[in-house]
């Protein structure tokens, strides 16, 4: 037998699988290596996200009695409505103060915003309610809406807003204004669009874009004495601030920067009080459902008003436009807020 024929015979006698084994071993090793990397990355991600969740749950206060016990509007489908309350009261109480949601004597809510997340999760709508709006406060008659917080804390504030808009509040979060400052710094600053040139607390703001650090942001959202229409412009500035925070928070630089993301969660949660259902797991599920949002998908508006009035005891208040209040209520309950906004005249 020639050497060539002997080689062919030897090759034929060798099992096929045995000849391919080096390739299969290499492929298996490669897949195992890739699987190992994915597993390690998954473990790292789980540990990081778990740490964020523990940080959020351990640092936030819980408002155990956030919601009225009876006479609440019925839930409206898969939309989610979250009442955001801004005040100085949590900071004033201090770490050993009254329970979350209970204001110190004379405390008032300086910002009320209803965050409406529609069932299709394509937008987030922020509906501001002027703090001097003259409304029915259950058990107290008519008064400025921010008095509800002074008289009954978060539970009465929720009940007042639910009665005003005939919409069930699913969650509530109270943040003190110091949180606005820390939140801004944790994001590395934010850019807001100001509609006016004005000076507040020693800081000057120009009409147009302004890049703010925490201290400047706090001055920007709190000032109302610089404006002829007072709280109307302050609400617009607060909306500009929230848009700036949202734009920065959803930017690629923040979401892919573990340190900045961690600092943002810590800075925010330290100043928050939430209802028992608004824990880290709920926030994560809601956030995941909104993962396709872009910065421009945050829409802000203000509950319409109809001038001002004076109460019998001399208080100046803002008159709620009754027709527009009813149409806004219907838009929220039917989960069609965008149509309501589009139908209104734009400034």
Identify the notable features of this structure and list them briefly:
347 residues; alpha+beta; seven-stranded mixed beta sheet; two-stranded antiparallel sheet; 12 helices; 15 strands; 46% helix; globular; disordered N terminus
Explain what this protein looks like in three dimensions:
This protein is of the alpha+beta class. The chain is 46% helix and 21% strand. The protein has twelve helices and 15 strands. It has helices at residues 3-13, 16-59, 89-93, 147-165, 178-186, 214-222, 231-249, 252-255, 258-269, 280-289, 322-333, 337-342; strands at 61-62, 80-87, 109-117, 124-129, 134-137, 141-144, 171-176, 190-194, 198-200, 203-205, 208-212, 272-274, 298-302, 305-310, 316-320. A hairpin with a 6-residue loop joins strand 3 (109-117) and strand 4. Helix 2 runs parallel beside helix 9 (258-269) and helix 6 runs antiparallel to helix 7 (231-249). The protein is globular, with a radius of gyration of 28 Å. The termini are far apart. Residues 1-20, 39-48 and 91-97 have low confidence and may be disordered.
Topology at a glance:
Blueprint: H1 3-13, H2 16-59, E1 61-62, E2 80-87, H3 89-93, E3 109-117, E4 124-129, E5 134-137, E6 141-144, H4 147-165, E7 171-176, H5 178-186, E8 190-194, E9 198-200, E10 203-205, E11 208-212, H6 214-222, H7 231-249, H8 252-255, H9 258-269, E12 272-274, H10 280-289, E13 298-302, E14 305-310, E15 316-320, H11 322-333, H12 337-342
Parallel strand pairs: 1-12, 2-7, 4-13
Antiparallel strand pairs: 2-3, 3-4, 5-6, 7-12, 8-11, 9-10, 14-15
């Amino acid at each position: 037998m020639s050497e060539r024929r002997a080689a062919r015979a030897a090759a034929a006698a060798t099992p096929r699988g045995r000849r391919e084994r080096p390739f299969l071993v290499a492929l298996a090793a490669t897949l195992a290596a890739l699987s190992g990397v994915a597993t390690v990355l998954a473990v790292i991600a789980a540990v990081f996200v778990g740490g964020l969740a523990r940080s959020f749950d351990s640092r936030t206060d819980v408002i155990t009695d956030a919601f009225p016990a009876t006479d609440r509007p019925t839930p409206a489908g898969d939309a989610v409505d979250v009442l955001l309350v801004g005040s100085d009261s949590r900071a004033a109480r201090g770490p050993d103060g009254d329970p979350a949601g209970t204001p110190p004597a004379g405390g008032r809510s300086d910002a009320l915003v209803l965050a409406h997340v529609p069932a299709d999760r394509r937008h987030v709508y922020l509906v501001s309610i002027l703090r001097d709006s003259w409304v029915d406060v259950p058990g107290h008659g008519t008064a400025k809406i921010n008095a509800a917080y002074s008289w009954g804390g978060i539970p009465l504030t929720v009940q007042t807003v639910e009665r005003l808009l005939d919409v069930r509040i699913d969650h509530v979060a109270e943040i003190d204004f110091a949180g606005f400052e820390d939140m801004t710094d944790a994001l590395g600053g934010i850019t807001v669009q100001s509609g006016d040139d004005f000076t507040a607390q020693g800081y000057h703001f120009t009409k147009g874009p302004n890049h703010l650090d925490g201290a400047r942001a706090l001055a920007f959202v709190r000032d109302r004495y610089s404006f002829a229409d007072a709280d109307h412009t302050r609400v617009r500035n607060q909306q500009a601030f929230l848009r700036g925070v949202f734009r920065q928070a959803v930017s690629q630089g923040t979401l892919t920067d573990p340190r900045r993301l961690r600092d943002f969660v810590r800075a925010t949660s330290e100043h928050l009080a939430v209802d028992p259902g608004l824990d880290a797991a709920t926030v994560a599920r809601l956030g995941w459902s909104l993962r396709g949002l872009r910065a421009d998908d945050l829409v802000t508006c203000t509950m319409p008003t109809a001038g001002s009035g004076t109460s019998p005891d001399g208080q100046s208040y803002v008159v709620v436009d009754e027709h527009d209040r009813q149409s806004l209520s219907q838009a929220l309950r039917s989960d069609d807020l965008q149509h309501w906004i589009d139908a209104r005249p734009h400034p």
